[in-house]
Specification:
The structure holds two protein chains of two kinds. In chain A, 55% of the residues lie in helices and 10% in strands. Chain A is an alpha+beta fold. Chain A has a four-stranded antiparallel β-sheet, covered by helices on one side. Chain B has one domain. The C terminus of chain B is likely disordered. Chain B starts with 11 loop residues before the first helix and ends with a helix.
Chain lengths: 187, 450
């Protein structure tokens, strides 16, 4: 892939960001319905580890792939709960660490602290959601290795990359062509 | 999702290329605008240096008005920031297809408006080098911030809002930067290759991305409503007549969205013209923005009426005096500017002719912003100047050149960032505009060919 910069990184990071190349077949599709057709045929033929590229997210692709719900939601939930706890700890511990009575109210007054807890819930929830997306996408990339890509996939083409050794590549090529791929290449 | 039929030549490829073209070589007009913004910023910087040298007395503060134009500008800019998240998060959750063409501009505006707003409390404290006292950090005096103070709530709210709206903007940008990367050459290709974080549009990426985006929107929605509520409590938690009202939170949130949507219109009109985006940002989008303006403007007008009614109905002589002073005191002109720009002008938007006339919308949006600036001026300055608890201290405060200098600088700072953004990153979402187009299908194309 010429489009990606190779960053000088320590080995474990290098492996995640630039995993070793995987041999396989790449099909380029002009139409959504032919892409879906190819996904169904691939799944019927027993392939599960292929990658589908699309310029936009489409529910049809998700459904055709039969993907489970992303685990990002667990990150959001845990981050949010942690943020709320941090907000409560921050306000209450700091109030009692140097107790000053303000406005005749209890040193640890819950109602105003709810605001801090709320804001921290949102802050930690949002940041851990980002971490969730980055981790999950990075590890998915590591699982599939460095695979073929085409610059048209962010514009108006759909793509399917099927990892395969040279023995199986021919069968996959013909399957992709049959479903309506406008271009098939091996790499 | 309502997919209104776009002109047939608007295909995926057309969208990518039209939006990527906005990043081409800047024209002379662009440099003139950028130069004007930087010049305004310099005015602000020089004024700030004067304020540092001679103190805040230059800003016309006098008893009892110690919150004035700087705080007015702070609330104004925080308000501007609100419509960005409304359009990008709340309308996303409502699945409004029309938001896709305008949300990126609104989101970028949000981030830069919060960056602008954040400067004002620092300028207002006078000794910027002590700003870190606001942060809860272990110090030799063992002191912690007072978490019962609305000013500390505000710090947490604005800090969270800035962080979350920035990551939300960046998240939305990633697939689009990748699309631009794949068309770019030279140093831009390197820049976009780095900033797109290796995005390829693979199904695993979309799977986590779309889920994560949904949760970010779900978190940003209560956040946007909370931020201006917290800002309003900076005032409402005190006992100053004109400030101490339970109405303040919803009133401020509606006003914030109102001014923000107006600012989106103000920014989109020139961008659409400059970058030839007429087929992507259509009249339909402007009409919907105008309707949002009409809705929030009506809530604001209703709040004005409620405020005045409650002042009269409460029977509280101080409350009545404060509102009488507001309408007929020394600052009557500010109050009536606010009432006319925010209360009367939006009623023009009931007419479809006005809603679909870009020039009219542009002019109205500017007046709305003037009106909303004066709303904050009236609430903050006029309530303090005519404080009925200290009639002996009532003073006529007038902003000085230092106030105007800092305010001009804030506009320069905001427009400088905004102009740099629209030339370096896609100002309209590429992938989301495509989402509301009918996807390319073999079947449909064959039928269409006959």
């Amino acid at each position: 892939m010429t489009t990606h910069l190779r960053l000088p990184l320590p080995k474990p990071l290098q492996d995640i960001i630039h995993p070793p190349p995987t041999p396989g077949v790449l099909g380029v599709f002009a139409y959504l319905d032919s892409t879906l057709d190819a996904i169904k045929k691939l799944r019927a033929a027993g392939h599960t580890d292929f990658t589908v590229y699309s310029p936009i997210p489409r529910h049809e692709i998700e459904e055709a792939l039969g993907q489970s719900v992303s685990p990002v939601r667990a990150f959001t939930l845990i981050g949010g709960i942690a943020g709320c706890a941090v907000g409560a700890w921050l306000t209450l511990w700091m109030s009692y660490d140097w107790p000053v009575v303000v406005g005749g109210k209890p040193v640890g007054s819950i109602p105003p602290y709810v605001i801090i807890m709320f804001e921290m819930t949102i802050l930690f929830g949002a940041l851990s959601t980002i971490l969730g997306i980055v981790f999950n996408a990075a590890f998915a990339a590591r699982r599939s290795g460095t695979i073929q890509y085409d610059e048209r996939f962010t514009n108006d083409r759909f793509g399917i990359f099927v990892p395969a050794d040279s023995g199986h590549a021919a069968a996959i090529e013909s399957l992709l062509k049959q479903s309506g791929a406008e271009e098939v290449r091996r790499g | 999702m309502a997919e209104h039929a776009p002109p047939s030549r608007v295909t995926y490829d057309y969208v990518t290329r039209t939006i990527a073209r906005t990043l081409g070589s800047p024209t002379r007009g662009y440099f003139l605008l950028l130069g004007a913004a930087v010049a305004l910023l310099l005015v602000g910087i020089v004024t700030l240096l004067y304020l540092l040298r001679y103190g805040l007395g230059l800003a016309g503060y006098s008893h009892p008005v110690y919150w004035a134009v700087f705080i007015t500008c702070f609330v104004f800019w925080v308000g501007i920031a609100h419509s960005g998240t409304l359009i990008s998060a709340i309308l996303f959750l409502f699945r409004s297809g029309w938001r896709t063409a305008v949300y990126r501009t609104a989101e970028a505006m949000t981030v830069f408006a919060v960056m602008t707003a954040g400067l004002f409390p620092l300028i207002h404290i006078g000794r910027q080098w002590y700003f870190y006292w606001l942060i809860p950090y272990p110090n030799e005096r063992g002191l912690w911030p007072n978490f019962k103070s609305p000013l500390i709530w505000d710090e947490f709210a604005i800090g969270t809002y800035f962080t979350v709206s920035t990551v939300f903007l960046i998240m939305g940008l990633i697939p689009d930067i990748a699309a631009v990367r794949d068309l770019a050459t030279g140093w831009r290709k390197k820049l976009y290759a780095l900033t797109s974080l290796g995005w390829t549009g693979a199904n695993e990426q979309w799977r986590h991305y779309t889920r994560g985006y949904l949760y970010l929107a779900a978190l940003a929605t209560p956040l946007v409503l909370s931020v201006h509520s917290v800002v309003s409590w900076d005032f409402a938690m005190s006992i100053v007549p004109g400030w101490h009202a339970t109405l303040f939170a919803p009133y401020f949130v509606a006003g914030a969205i109102y001014s923000g949507v107006a600012m989106v219109i103000t920014l989109l009109v020139p961008i659409r013209k400059l970058f030839h985006l007429e087929e992507i940002i259509t009249l339909h989008h402007f009409e919907n923005l105008a309707k949002l303006c009409l809705l929030t403007g009506s809530i604001v007008s209703f709040s004005y009426m409620t405020e005045n009614f409650v002042a009269w109905f409460s029977g509280n002589p101080h409350e009545r005096a404060a509102f009488w002073y507001r309408a007929f005191g020394e600052y009557w002109w500010a109050s009536w500017t606010m009432n006319i720009c925010n209360g009367l002008l939006p009623w023009l938007l009931w007419s479809k002719t006005v809603r679909t006339n870009i020039t009219a919308l542009f002019v109205i949006s500017i007046f709305v912003n003037i009106g909303m600036w004066f709303e904050r001026y009236v609430i903050i300055v006029v309530s303090l100047a005519g404080e009925p608890y200290q009639p002996w201290a009532n003073a006529v405060y007038n902003p000085t050149w230092a106030d105007w200098g800092i305010m001009a600088g804030s506009f320069g700072w905001f427009f400088m960032w905004f102009l740099l953004f629209v030339k370096n990153f896609p100002a309209v979402s590429i992938s989301e505009v495509k989402e509301v187009l009918p996807p390319p299908k073999r079947q449909a194309t064959r039928a269409g060919a006959h």
